[in-house]
Amino acid sequence: MMRAGSYNAGTPSVSIILPVYNRIGFLRLAVESVFAQTYTDWELVIADDGSSDITRTYLQSLIRRNVRVLWLHHCGNPSRVRNAAIQAASGKYIAFLDSDDIWPVSKLEAQMAVLCAHPERRWSYTMCDHIDKNGRVLDNSHLAHIDFAEGWVFEPLLKLQFSIAMPTVVAERDLVIEIGGFDEAQLFGEFQDICLRLALKSEVVALRRPLCMVRNHDEHYSADRADGQAGWMRLYQKMIAFAPNAALRNYCARMRSDASLRLARVYGDRGQYRAIWRTLAHASSFSWKYPNWWSGAFRCLLRPVIPRFIVDKCKSLIVFKAPGSG
To answer: What is the pLDDT of the chain when averaged over all its residues?
Structure first.
């Protein structure tokens, strides 16, 4: 169980949590962006998830007064790795950085200033840019319609009206520990999960400028579409218990149902017919009351064996009603 820390004059204000598993080319750039920060009252806690020798040699060269490395056995569970670093951290605040992302030099300075100006708000995030594997800034114009929120943000965050990128967040360590840290059983969507639980406990203060660069490439842990959709199903199931009112609980239940269809479609794309049946059979216990779920399930079942235009034609001719809907 995580324990709240005690702070004294000798401890840093910010503990930077950096989980690592190889990717040394990206890792070097991430670490260099930490060392370049204009805000210098920090410690870097690197949790190495059993990397190869070349990465371990590089990490050993970094160890100094304000840089610690936790040598872990490989588990492939980012939440477990981050929790180990959080437990070892000593700062009042925690900042998150992934090994493939980069901070501008003023990132920590700007966020610590705004957190000090709003002590009632116990965590912060910023906007971010997206870069490719070579560091080129990608076109983010498609994100222009997404809202930017602060204060009590659980509902808009739950409804995906805006998003928070992990390496933009700075939060009180005691707040992170109070909510239990990362859910190690939430293998995908784990950061959406922790942000939702932070949002239930405290208002958030936000900076409306990009203070992080998130790298898009093909080596992401979350690249498996089936596991990703299964993660969203679990997240919405979990949030049914956390949601503060009936309307949001109903929303979570409906989104869980929708995620089951997306998962079944992924299996359909792969031609995994038994997996489709298994997914839909499980989801029927909580999706039976949604008429659109039944039509979606019908298309998922037919998709691997019948051309899609025929499935769509059949759907237009059949009216589905959920059992008990009259």
So the answer is: 90
- Residues 43-57 as b/e (b if ≥16 CB within 10 A, e otherwise) read bbbbbbbbbeeebbe
Contact in structure between 173 and 89 (CB atoms under 8 Å): yes
Find the length of the chain: 326
Phi, psi of 215 (to 5 degrees): -90, 130
pLDDT digits (tens, 9 = 90+) for 226-257: 999 999 999 999 999 999 999 999 999 999 99
Q: What is the pTM of this model?
A: 0.88
Q: What residues are paired with 213 via a beta bridge?
A: 102, 129
Q: Is residue 322 part of a domain?
A: no
Let me know how many helices (H) and strands (E) the chain has, helices first.
12, 7
Higher pLDDT, 310 or 102: 102
Does some domain include residue 287?
A: yes
The CB-side HSE value for 52 (13 A sphere, CA atoms) comes to: 4
Q: Give the pLDDT mean for 7-22.
A: 88
Statement to judge: residues 67 and 162 lie in one domain: yes
Which domain, by its residues, includes 257?
224-317
Looking at the DSSP assignment, which residues form a beta bridge with residue 40?
none
Q: Compute the C-alpha angle 265/270/273, nearest 5°.
A: 75
Tell whether 85 and 194 lie within a shared domain: yes
From CA 196, how far away is CA 78, in angstroms rounded?
18
Which tokens belong to 39? 């805000």
Q: What is the DSSP letter of 167?
A: G
Whether the Cβ atoms of residue 17 and residue 94 lie closer than 8 Å to each other: yes
Sign of CA dihedral 78, 53, 214, 205: positive
Cα angle value 170/171/175 (rounded, 5°): 170
Chain centroid offset of residue 66 CA: 27
